[in-house]
Write a structure and sequence with these properties.
The complex is a heterodimer of chains A (about 375) and B (about 150).
Chain A lengths: L18 H11 L1 H11 L11 H10 L6 E6 L8 H24 L3 E6 L7 H17 L5 E6 L9 H8 L23 E5 H13 L1 H5 L9 E8 L5 E6 L4 H8 L4 E6 L5 E4 L18 E6 L4 H15 L5 H18 L7 H15 L3 H16 L1 H5 L1
Parallel strand pairs in A: 1-2, 1-4, 2-3, 5-9
Antiparallel strand pairs in A: 5-6, 7-8, 7-9
Helix pairs in contact in A: 2-3, 4-5, 4-7, 10-11, 10-13, 11-12, 11-13, 12-13
Chain B lengths: L2 H13 L6 H12 L4 H11 L3 H8 L13 E6 L2 H5 L2 H12 L12 E6 L11 E3 L2 E3 L4 H13 L1
Parallel strand pairs in B: 1-2
Antiparallel strand pairs in B: 1-3, 3-4
The chains are: A alpha/beta (about 375), B alpha+beta (about 150).
Bound molecules: flavin mononucleotide (FMN), iron/sulfur cluster and FE2/S2 (inorganic) cluster.
Iron/sulfur cluster binds next to helix 11 and helix 13 of chain A.
Chain lengths: ~375, ~150
């Protein structure tokens, strides 16, 4: 066995921290000063898109509006991702502290955790956590009311504009950005939407400071990250690791010794084949990930994997715009046709072009990211798709 | 007022007569009646002062909101890649052996409906499924039968 080269950390689930004291510290420090600290920390959103969190909070703080909202995005639907569930199950109070911090900094008085219906089993537990926290928040002299909102089985509601429509009681259909939620979010008011893990990182930065936080990870991908590891692994589960390792390092630690590909970032992410393991960095400078790492060994058919992803996208596309609605169907029918020899091999190149078109012609990130998995699987495993 | 109308009126009192309450109200109606009937949709529309077509249009967007009668227990087996690699079809076969339903079907006594669903966020413990709000993981053909036998007794 090679010695482990991945760097473990333990900040997200660390217990027994006096967050009231942390909040007092930040209140003494000042709002603008903390925003600078957050920007300096390099924290980028953990929901996948990686927008700088400090900047997002700064934009909402700058808005002149008596009503502002804080929304925690707990819709976690990306295949292979289960870290937000783990956080809410085991460290919900940290999420609530992170949201409280966001509320204090931006001047929001109300917040919501939008959680997927698949996680309804946590409802009672989360309500208790919220009730318990109310006292702590009040004791700090902060006015912040928190509630839970449940989704109803739609992956697209993880997209922030779709999520907001869903909260408002509409179909979860994304809208074009701009306007961004920071200016026109929930009920058209300035709104912070952050991922569960992002809020936890924000309160960690409040606790340990940007300087300590920046010691973790790389320049483009600072701090610590939860990875959801599954598939053909020697160990599956949630692991908190520094960002910036190569896929090779990851595979040496988690693979089963026969890894042929790793899908980084879920169905919307990229498939990395064995030959590229050593020079592919996991992080914003290489392959970004919301945390999903799915490992495939050589017994797996990548055709089957691609088909499974396309069925997922075809079902979850909201159907609002043509490139995505028709594109996902055509890609799925297309690989079936090539497999059955109803279309020549060269048809795959037509399909790659279609996936490319979807990348810029689709309205939201769902349609735009179908080409990631499609392109990387078809290019690297062409033989498996054809024969 | 019928029982259903009365129930929905109380929900509207509880959540407020505003559009933002729509999903929360539908969730409770489905908990109670297992699906969203025409009567429920009309009553919700009246309480929230919106067209019934809008209630229907919104509800049908979401996979967990059924507008056709469902079993008391809705089983949703994860079909996404990791559970697929972990042989989700064995789970579906085991359910068929016990209940004689395939994905998309409901038992004749109206007790169980079966569907495929997408990733449940339990991949590392797959194959996984939901029965109503409860999650079940690390399933085997034997364990899924044990679980269902318990539900049959309820
Ligand atoms: C199709 C789609 C699904 C998404 N699903 C999620 C999700 O489940 N959770 C999440 O935090 N962000 C999700 N996002 C990203 C959000 O739109 C948004 O960028 C994010 O919540 C912002 O928070 P962050 O900056 O803390 O990451 C999704 C985006 C797209 C396009
Ligand atoms: S890209 Fe797909 S999911 Fe996004 S708005 Fe268009 S149809 Fe809907
Ligand atoms: S793939 Fe089945 S729970 Fe994630």
């Amino acid at each position: 066995m090679p010695t482990s080269t991945v760097k473990r950390t333990d900040l997200i689930f660390k217990k027994d921290i006096d967050y009231s004291a942390v909040m007092h510290k930040i209140m003494k420090m000042g709002k603008d000063e903390f925003i600078e600290e957050l920007i300096d920390s390099g924290l980028r959103g953990r929901g996948g898109a990686g927008f700088p969190t400090g900047l997002k909070w700064k934009l909402v703080k700058a808005e002149q509006s008596p009503e502002k909202y804080i929304i925690c995005n707990a819709d976690e639907g990306e295949p292979g991702t289960f870290k937000d569930r783990e956080i809410l199950d085991n460290a919900a109070e940290k999420v609530i502290w992170g949201m409280t911090l966001a509320a204090y900094i931006t001047g929001a008085k109300e917040g919501f955790i939008y959680i997927r219906a698949e996680y309804k089993y946590m409802q009672t537990k989360l309500r208790i956590a919220i009730d318990r926290m109310e006292q702590n928040i009040k004791a700090l002299g902060i006015k912040f009311k928190l509630d839970l909102v449940f989704g109803a089985g739609a992956y697209i509601c993880g997209e922030e504009t779709a999520l907001i429509h869903s909260m408002e009681g509409y179909r979860g259909e994304p809208t074009n950005k701009p306007p961004f939620p920071v200016t026109q979010g929930y009920l058209n008011k300035p709104t912070v939407v952050n991922n569960v893990e992002t809020f936890v990182n924000a309160i960690i930065i409040a606790e340990i400071g940007a300087k300590e936080y920046k010691k973790l990870g790389t320049k483009a991908s600072q701090g610590t990250k939860l990875f959801s590891v599954s598939g053909d692994c020697c160990k599956e589960g949630i692991f908190e690791l520094e960002m910036g390792m190569t896929v090779q390092q990851f595979v040496d630690e988690f693979g089963d010794g026969d890894t042929k590909a790793v899908q980084v970032g879920g169905a919307s992410g990229f498939c990395v084949p064995r030959k590229e393991f050593p020079n592919t960095i996991i992080g914003f400078e290489g392959v970004p990930t919301g945390g999903s790492m799915k490992v495939f060994n050589s017994s797996r058919s990548m055709y089957n994997t691609l088909e499974n992803y396309l069925i997922f996208f075809e079902e979850e596309s909201c159907g609002q715009c043509t490139p995505c609605r028709i594109g996902t169907q055509q890609l799925l029918m297309g690989i079936h046709a090539v497999k059955r020899k109803e279309k020549p091999k060269s048809y795959l190149d037509e399909l790659l072009k279609l996936a490319q078109t979807m990348k810029f012609a689709s309205k939201c990130g769902l349609g735009r990211s179908v080409g990631n998995a499609f392109g990387s699987i078809v290019t690297n495993f062409r033989e498996e798709i054809i024969y | 007022m019928t029982n259903c109308e009365e129930f929905i009126s109380q929900l509207a009192n509880k959540y407020g007569r505003k559009r933002e309450s729509l999903l929360a109200i539908i969730h409770e109606v489905i908990n109670q009646y297992y699906y969203l009937s025409e009567e429920s949709m009309t009553a919700i529309a009246r309480e929230l002062n919106m067209p019934a077509a809008e209630v229907y249009g919104t509800a049908t967007f979401y996979t967990f909101f059924d507008t056709k009668p469902q079993g008391k227990y809705v089983i949703r087996v994860c079909q996404t890649i990791v559970c697929d690699m972990k042989r989700k079809e064995d789970i579906v076969d085991a359910i068929y052996e016990l209940l004689r339903i395939k994905p998309g079907e409901t038992t004749s006594d109206g007790k169980f409906s079966l569907y495929y669903t997408n990733c449940l966020g339990m991949c590392h413990e797959g194959p996984a499924m939901l029965i109503n709000d409860e999650q079940y993981a690390k399933l085997t053909p034997e364990s899924v039968k044990d679980i269902l036998v318990n539900y049959m007794k309820k």
